[in-house]
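Input record (one chain):
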Amino acid sequence: MARPLRSLSASASSIFVMSLVVVTALVGGLVVATESLAARPNVVLIMSDDQGLGDFGATGNPLIETPHIDAMARRSASMSTFYVSPVCAPTRACLMTGRYNYRTRAIDTFVGRAMMEPAEVTIAEVLADAGYATGIFGKWHLGDNYPLRPMDQGFSASLVHRGGGLGQPSDPPENDRRYTDAILFRDGVATATKGYCTDVYFDAAFDFIEESQRDDKNFFIYLPTNAPHGPFHDVPEALRQKYLAKPLEELMIHKPSGAKLAHEHDTLARIAAMITNIDENVGRLFDKLDELELTENTIVIYMVDNGPNTVRYVTRQLRGRKSDVHEGGIRSPFWMHWPARLTAGHVDDTPAAHIDVLPTLLAACEVPVPAGLKLDGRNFLPLLKGESIDWPEREIVIQSHRGNVPVRYHHFMIRDARWKLVHPTGFGYTGFKKPPTFEKLELYDIVADPGETRNLAAEHPEVVTRLKAAYNRWFDDVSSTREDNYGPPRIHIGTPHENPTALTRQDWRDGNWDVHSNGYWLLHVATAGTYDFEVILRPAAAAVGTASLEVAGRTVDVAVEPAAERVSIDGVELPAGDGRLKVTLRFANGERGPYQVLVRRRATGSRPARN
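The corresponding structure, as predicted from the sequence alone:
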């Protein structure tokens, strides 16, 4: 496909494409349609994990080195007041759908509540339908099994880890908490990779760009790194050594002493190393776009998913960190680099949020919002362009906390153009003796007081009343999106799309990640038949025991031998339909659940298959 030359100005590029349309109109409508697509931009959306607003030179950080991102920021237009959720999966659901995550069933980060309703329409699906090649490389965190995977949600290419990060119970046991040479999943297939994970994701993106060019297709690339999320044991060592020599205690909000200070210094050195590694890859991305002469008409966005994962430097000393609903936990940079259409250095301070990214990108790509799709977000592209438009005042609501269903008034914020009402009751599980009221209510003039230092609730009760009413309308609305609004999605087994299916602690119900915990999985059996189960033990059995499988109203027990790492339970007949599966490991010293369970549907007449 022909593309505008990088040397053309934005206006000249538009004239060039319009001229092609006029000339080819004399030849035939089909050619006109093809050439008109030449003006569409490519898109690369980068979102780092747990980085925080203050972890960039561009936002004033004096020690963490991000020269390539800083240069991108200078060349970009930006939204200076941009909100995300305080934790991973809710932000990702909002970003992918343009809808509040409470509409999508993705309401927490684990134990089955980070799975997104498969009927939700993602930006990848919309752009794929419009002819874009779509790829994700990094962290999905919205479901690991069919029909919840990125490849089921509009991405034609994917290289991702499972769950919320490497080093978590969703990992294959062989990964052993490693970020280097990790086992990732390429289009659903476990794949051994070589190199540090962030480098691997960007390399895969570069291959995808080149493949898209060979196929004459525009591309949409989603690059959500799992860095600088923990664990922090596996980081680029040369960069870690560099940061160990820096006075990182200057970034610490609360400075411990002695051994604790040394430990915190090392942790921050590891986080900084991961951030600078991301920055180096951003530099490599622009080198690749320059090499292919794609920079002019490729949108590159940089943002983060939530606040920083430690209490550290934040621009203007904003309160809070990851999981908080004060500004430090929910603010992100938003830099959009698009030389063909945006003016470098333009800044708009209108409040915007993750729900706005989908409609903004669709507008930039000249792709209409699908008919009937209800979005919560708005297109802020005109603001990035510096256009004078009618922008009716609205409220942005952010709410996230542990638990199976949202609780009214628990750990939320709502803000309009000036005021922010926040109820920081804590991200933890809801165990209230009575529903939370407004005992921790805080109201801030957030424009005049971005550090949230002066609670004005008592002085402006009329604002409290107005924002409380707006919040209640929002909560009622997002809670009534569909029947069984907060029921978790089910994992499908026995489909041609995924066999075997790996069930992990990421998505089980009523359990947690403690080694002694147990839970169950909500399943949909797509095809009645014979199923084999491979139970993965971690740690291995220390003594003789029993593995008890409960599924489809029956229980099957098999012996577990000492030192066993896997146990097979084969030949179980399952009817089609919804059900649940639970495996209990029983030993003399107690019970626990498995590390993972692999479920295989047998082909008719076949024997059990093993890895």
